[in-house]
Amino acid sequence: MSRSTPLRGVHESLGATLTDFAGWQMPLRYGSESAEHNAVRTAAGLFDLSHMGEIFVVGAQAGEALDRALVGHLSVLAPGRARYTMIVNETGGILDDLIVYRLDEDQYMVVANASNYALVARELADRVRGYDARVTDRSDEYALVAVQGPRSAEILAALTDADLDDLKYYAIVPGVVAGTPALIARTGYTGEDGFELFVLNEHAVPLWNALAEAGRDAGLVPAGLSARDTLRLEAGMPLYGNELSAAITPFDAGLGRVVRFDKPGDFVGKAALERAAENGTRRRLVGLVARGRRVPRHGYSVTREGAVVGEVTSGAPSQSLGRPIAMAYVDEGALEKGGLAVDIRGSQEPVDVVDLPFYRRSK
């Protein structure tokens, strides 16, 4: 049975199309997904992300424990800052990609994907044994509301005394938003400036309504999973279950930079990742832009001269480029030779390989 976020009633009142996502009933769209996408690129969008997991790691050795548990170097993270990282298994396969926020000297918040946070909480609890650190999964207590887009700071500033001008990208600060205690993070999954607001469940509806009202004249609209997916795809951001899985290492995904071999001590998966770094990868994650109008979709084969040389992981029409785009894992040898296509229902549709991301916002 699917779970509902504290905002389900709001979504239904707005006429949202709901869908099951990772065991949650989530808004797919409220009307036109292209309009929602474009609103985030030009003004602002309001997202319910309450299906995500919030796991707290607390104690005098919380940082050192996370250094062992994850691939990143979290003990050197300054209080009030955040870092993108991953948890891997002993063979280097990605169990989830995460954002870790250091809330103070001995308290971290690990934000995990909806499909994986129970696994992440269990793994963290096991991996911190022997350290002065304890793991508490507080996912059921928290809602997460995001406002994303070039006018997001303007909208949020009308509701909070927090100094947003001094809040850097990948930073977090406690504050009050529309009378609601919140953790205010300058993070997001859209390629735009924006904020993610962590609040207790009972504050989710009043916070959402206050943001919607404050953003009404600024062009803010509610945005669903469809727009979130096309926005993150244009921004070249991976999705667990598509670009990332337990069969893929960070190096396969072109994200080897998040693995910190230079931190002191051992960490889970280190030996396997050292081999992956040394041996290189057979396939590489790349961006594809279709020359025609047909859309490469997840699971479609990438071909060269009729032979399968890769697989599409995510694909959609791009509102920003005006052409279909995709991410795909492709054999290195085929990338060197060029002449790639995607098999779309038996038709070999030519594509161009491009660097990721497809879209970068203007600063």
UniProtKB/TrEMBL annotation:
Keyword Disulfide bond part of the UniProt annotation: no
Species of the source: Microbispora siamensis
Residues covered by the GCVT N-terminal domain: 9-263
UniProt protein name: Aminomethyltransferase
Top-tier EC class: transferase
Function: The glycine cleavage system catalyzes the degradation of glycine.
Enzyme Commission no: 2.1.2.10
Keywords: Aminotransferase, Transferase
NCBIfam families: gcvT, PRK00389.1
InterPro entries per the UniProt record, alphabetical: GcvT, GcvT/YgfZ/DmdA, GcvT/YgfZ_C, GcvT_bac, GcvT_C, GCVT_N, TrmE/GcvT-like
Residue span(s) of domain Aminomethyltransferase C-terminal: 283-359
Catalytic activity: N(6)-[(R)-S(8)-aminomethyldihydrolipoyl]-L-lysyl-[protein] + (6S)-5,6,7,8-tetrahydrofolate = N(6)-[(R)-dihydrolipoyl]-L-lysyl-[protein] + (6R)-5,10-methylene-5,6,7,8-tetrahydrofolate + NH4(+)
Similarity field: Belongs to the GcvT family.
Subunit description: The glycine cleavage system is composed of four proteins: P, T, L and H.
Pfam families attached to this UniProt entry: GCV_T, GCV_T_C
Tree of life domain: Bacteria
